Amino acid sequence: MKILVLNTGSSSVKYRLFDGADTVAKGLIERIGEADGDAADHGAALRQIMDSVDLSGLAAVGHRVVHGGSDFEKATVVDDDLVAAVERLVPLAPLHNPAALTGIAVARGLLPDLPQVAVFDTAFHASIPPEGAVWAIDAELARRWQIQRYGFHGTSHAYVSRQTARLLGRPVGETNVITLHLGNGASACAVQGGRSVATSMGMSPQGGLVMGTRSGDIDPTVVFHLHREAGMSIDEIETSLTRGAGLQGLAGANDMRTVQERWSAGDPAATLAFDVYCRRIREYVGAYYAVLGRVDAVTFTAGVGEHSPEVRAVSLSGLSALGIEIDPDRNERGEKIISPDGGRVAVCVVPTDEELEIAEQTRTAIA
Ligand code: AMP
Q1: Domain that holds residue 337
Q2: Which residues are near ligand 1 (CB < 6 Å)?
Q3: pTM of the prediction?
Q4: CA 245 to CA 287: how far, in whole Å?
Q5: Which protein residue has the closest C-alpha to ligand 1 atom 19?
Q6: Same domain for 114 and 221?
Q7: Residues 281 and 197 in one domain
Q8: Which residues, including other chains, have CB under 8 Å from residue 71's CB and lie 6 or more apart?
Q9: How far apart are CA 49 and CA 137, in angstroms?
Q10: Over the stretch 34-63, which tens digit does the pLDDT of each residue have?
Q11: CATH number for 79
């Protein structure tokens, strides 16, 4: 059974065609609408994809949709009501949801007889209990304006936590994992028996861990202060905190490889950026240990998590009292399990595969 996975951005479409768990085609159409781009518009981009791959036996199209709000707890077959609901969520994801809606509309037009499935980044976190999702602000304001923690990277946390249980040879339903998705965006998740019970991103993908260009957690007064005292507009502040913060803000480079090179050369700004980045991860690991009560594994994934032994070592340093330890040689070699034999908590490195997870959830949704 073939599944086509589409990740439609504002100016790009990433696609991957699965036959079972095997990838039979994949690609990226970029700079859509630009003079030297790969396609004139999203319709042309999707037609180009459909023409270039063998769609015989295609059972469904799975679309990555960033924000499902509190309406969607799992991947859902697309109908007009779903489209209307995702449209209503545009104010919560102004860059991402419109692009996904374009992808859905074009794919529905081109393949009217096939089921289209929306797979939401937020859905895995629908299981977070109210005390982990609600902020202590005016309850009426929160209700009216849909202010709560939604969480993101859900397909990655779901996939990686399941793979961790498999790696340890344990049933998913009895395994507690702290997953650390450290890519360009970064988030932590506490997974209890296969269900998300806490995550670090909030109403937007801005909260929580330090990221390439995003601040992660800050005191909200920073925003008021920059507005009143520095005279910055709300838009300027948003741009600064989302594109000019994180590693970029502290070290002048958003790529962890660059930060680590400068750190190795003794650059003080890069050293501080690296330390702030790792310390924030350690704080979340401690917090989620307390939320879970018992932790079977801590798992690193995504660009930084999969490739930086330094970040893994520093962010989990000093946690041996919690049973969390790393074997330096295994860590350096990037083995799947980098904790010492017999450790109370397994520390794992698991490559994420969000597209495969989208394909699997799409298959489940149409079954
Ligand atoms: P992702 O969003 O998962 O593709 O992750 C992208 C980020 O991973 C990049 O911005 C890099 O900072 C980081 N990265 C990739 N390879 C390495 C590496 N060898 N060491 C440290 N960071 C890396």
Answers
A1: 171-349
A2: 183-184, 212, 255-257, 260, 302-304, 307-308
A3: 0.96
A4: 24
A5: 307
A6: no
A7: yes
A8: 85, 89
A9: 46
A10: 989 999 998 899 999 988 999 899 999 999
A11: 3.30.420.40
